[in-house]
Design a protein that fits this description.
Blueprint (H helix, E strand, L loop, with lengths): L4 H21 L3 H9 L9 H15 L2 H4 L3 H24 L3 H20 L5 H27 L13 H21 L3 H21 L2 H18 L5 H18 L2 H12 L11 H14 L18 H34 L5 H15 L15 H16 L1
Helix pairs in contact: 1-3, 1-7, 3-6, 5-6, 5-14, 6-16, 7-8, 7-9, 8-9, 8-10, 8-15, 10-15, 13-14, 14-15, 15-16
Length: 393
């Protein structure tokens, strides 16, 4: 044998860290600006290299014997096949390619789960993997603030490139850095990780990635419940609420306005949803008259609906959207179940809770939780890691 399995795994891990670095650094303002100058309307000048890296890492991670033991992978492959068949029906009878075109996104997610499933689950891999993703994400976010926004100030207009995608990555980074800080025994290292987590939160607020902020808040409360679910959760939450109330009273008014402006700056007519509620109402109204086929014939074509499930219902109707919706809930229920089942400090719980972030964001975004592009790949890699750890437990 020319190369040992251990050597191949080491190469695969190195390329994986490079993949995470490239995916995160592609949101650096210089990379984005160079991409615009090169004529890219979607993706960046790094996209082709990210695709190649992803393909190589996936190829080196293929382990069919192990995947046969994963219930999640088998379910995912089955429903992917169902989506393919339904997509062919939609294409054949309605000349609509949208569902077939979405298969690429679902295949990327499957590949990410497989990559995570084949990783060696240990503390060293966990630390390097998280830092390889979080540090370049933080750097890209910080540079977006300094270059595009001009500093830590709230602007009426959005100045950050792909702020919602970057916000989701920063939310994952914030939670991941907090998680690592709790598992570290070195006080100085814990302090650095907590500082970086707070920095990620401040960047999210500054770029006004509101759903990332809300998801981080909800995930934070949920994770705190997992830590305190021995009965002291309500008591400790009340104590924290009281302390937070008095802390807010003592904080400078400028800090309170900073948070408030992050949500309300630039909103017109009191619509902080940036027009989302209007499109929701329009889509629901249209579906009430066309529940089975939705807009599959593209007769109405409402502007981009910022809710993943509602968008799929609108695009394909109840008659053809059901396999996508079932796959959506299979994954979210699996993640929620694992979150409750394992200790909060475990990889199984961490990977599952991290995956809930893009699912929460999907309530107000059209491409999450499965995209856009490689934005959520890290979350699904963590899901694969947690699934492998559950199997080996």
């Amino acid at each position: 044998m020319l190369f040992s399995n251990n050597f191949i795994k080491n190469i695969r891990d190195l390329l994986l860290y490079l993949l995470l670095f490239a995916s995160a650094i592609s949101y650096h303002p210089t990379i984005v600006r160079m991409s615009h100058l090169a004529g890219y309307e979607s993706g960046t000048i790094l996209s082709r290299y990210i695709v190649v890296l992803f393909g190589v890492v996936l190829f080196l991670s293929l382990n069919t014997k192990a995947f046969k033991n994963s219930k999640l992978v088998k379910k995912y492959v089955f429903w992917l096949f169902v989506i393919f068949v339904v997509g062919l029906i939609v294409l054949t009878f309605f000349n609509n390619k949208r569902m077939i075109n979405e298969l690429r996104t679902f295949l990327i997610v499957l590949g990410a789960i497989m990559i995570g499933y084949d990783l060696r689950v240990n503390d060293q891999t966990k630390y390097i993997l998280v830092l390889a993703f979080c540090l370049p994400t933080l750097f890209s976010g910080l540079m977006q603030v300094l270059v595009n926004v001009g500093g830590f100030q709230i602007m009426d207009q959005y100045l950050t490139d792909s702020k919602n995608a970057l916000g989701a990555m920063l939310a994952t980074s914030c939670f991941s850095l907090f998680y690592l800080s709790r598992s570290s025994n070195r006080l100085s290292f814990r302090g650095v990780l907590l500082f970086l987590a707070i920095l990620a939160l401040v960047i999210i607020i500054t770029i006004r990635a509101r759903m990332a902020m809300l998801s981080l808040f909800m995930i934070g409360v949920f994770y705190y419940y997992l830590l305190k679910r021995n009965g002291s959760f309500i008591i400790s939450l009340v104590v924290i609420g009281v302390v937070a109330f008095f802390a807010i009273l003592l904080l400078p008014d400028s800090i309170f306005r900073y948070f408030e402006s992050s949500f309300t700056a630039g909103s017109q007519g009191g619509d902080i949803s940036s027009g989302r509620f209007g499109t929701y109402e329009e889509a629901i109204s249209y579906l009430s008259f066309h529940p089975f086929l939705g807009d599959i014939l593209r007769e109405n074509q409402i502007s981009w609906i910022h809710n993943y499930l509602l968008l799929k219902l609108y695009n394909f109707g109840v008659l053809f959207s059901w396999p996508i919706i079932i796959l959506y809930f299979i994954i979210i229920f699996r993640a929620a179940k694992n979150s409750f089942r394992f200790h909060p400090a475990s990889v199984e719980c961490y990977g599952s809770v991290c995956l809930l972030i893009p699912f929460f964001i999907s309530l107000a975004e059209p491409t999450f939780p499965f995209g856009p592009g490689t934005v959520t790949v890290f979350n699904f890699i963590l899901l694969g890691m947690s699934e492998q750890s559950i199997r080996n437990a």
